[in-house]
Amino acid sequence: METEDLDVEILVRSPLWEGHREILVRALGAAAEMENKRGEVSLLLGGDADVAKLNKEFRGKDGPTNVLSFPGPKVEPAFLGDIAMAAETIAEEAQFQGKPFEHHAAHLVVHGFLHLLGYDHANPADADVMEGRERAILVSIGIADPYA
């Protein structure tokens, strides 16, 4: 799927993602536009088992996490990287937080995209910057502040 600034290659590995691809691509397109980035992103819309395997292999951590980001190689600047999302974990988080699944998933895909660009939240100052970008991007597509 394409947006004006971004080509998004999607691999769907969980039926829970059915009907939710459009908002994710829209969120990625808004993020690319606001960050003035063009290029390609691959998006794995997986289940917990898919993401748990990647989490173990690349981070040495057991179990799934909601989103993983793998920045692209510097030698291929048009390829921004890979994002992997765990449907069951995201659904559980959305329910716990009282948010629509689509809104939480859109927030996490934006979060993952910003990691591809080098944003981080390891310390409070960096977290404030990253969260501010996430808020602005999500508001631009009609999604409320995910941190409210």
Tell me what you see in this structure:
This protein has a single domain, classed as Metalloproteases ("zincins"), catalytic domain (Collagenase (Catalytic Domain), 3-Layer(aba) Sandwich), CATH 3.40.390.30. The protein is built from 5 helices and 4 strands. It is α/β, with parallel strands linked by helices and 148 residues long.
Summarize the structure.
The protein is an alpha/beta fold and 148 residues long. It has helices spanning 21-34, 48-59, 87-97, 101-116, 124-140; strands at 6-12, 39-46, 67-71, 79-86. Helix 1 links the parallel strand 1 and strand 2.
Question: Proportion of β residues?
Answer: 15-25%
Tell me the span between the first and last alpha carbons: 31 Å
Give the CATH superfamily. Metalloproteases ("zincins"), catalytic domain
In total, the number of strands is 4
Structural class: alpha/beta
Task: List the helices and strands in order.
Answer: EHEHEEHHH
Widest sheet: strand order? 1-2-4-3
Parts with pLDDT < 50 across at least 5 consecutive residues: none
Q: Could you name the CATH class?
A: Alpha Beta
CATH architecture: 3-Layer(aba) Sandwich
Approximate shape = globular
Helical percentage: 40-55%
| Count of DSSP H/I helices | 5
**Average predicted local confidence, pLDDT:** 95
* Oligomeric description of these chains: single chain
Major pleated sheet: 4 strands, mixed
Rg over CA atoms, rounded to whole Å, is: 14 Å
The domain tally reads 1
User: What is the third-level CATH name, the topology?
Assistant: Collagenase (Catalytic Domain)
